[in-house]
Fold this sequence. Notes:
Elements: H1 2-32, H2 47-61, H3 71-90, H4 100-118, H5 123-146, H6 150-170, H7 179-193
Helix pairs in contact: 1-5, 2-3, 2-4, 3-4, 3-5, 4-5
Amino acid sequence: MTGMKQTLSDLLGNVELLKENIKKHCITVAKILPSGVTPKTSVVSLPLVDSTLDYLNDLMDKDDDKFVDLKDQIRTIHQELTFLQFFATCIEVEKYPELEEIFIRIRYIAYEVEYIINSFAPVWYLTLRLPQVIEKIQHVKTQLQEKKIHDDVMQKNTEYRSQQVSLQAQRPDRIIGLEDVENEIKKKTLRRKK
Length: 194
């Protein structure tokens, strides 16, 4: 029996050592290979981001035991990727060709999120990796804001919203089908005043 205890003790020690090595590796790789190291392509569409956002949305709606502790981080990643996707769809690529690399990084981050979450990694590994992904997303947001394109996008967003408000202002205030009810209420109100 003592030999079995010793073997289990050695195994647990090796597992802890392996965990520490994996943590060190994750931190080292994140520092050495930032998400900016991606191949150049001429494609600027972001369908991978769309599918990743849908997948994250499904994860947030599920009651999966594996992701209970990670829901806040998943929600943060979803919000940040949604912002980047909105930002990317509002930009005229021809006007800002230097953003091609940033679009590639956005796709790379979406791929990384999907890969990390779909892996069979333990929760402690996900707890370590997801904050690193959030940090990468925030770095991309910072780069976009540094390029001062943020103002152009927000101006387009403001113009779009003002168009929507003007369209709403053109609609009649009355709801169709309730004219009879409105007239009846007016009559009752006028009778009470007399």
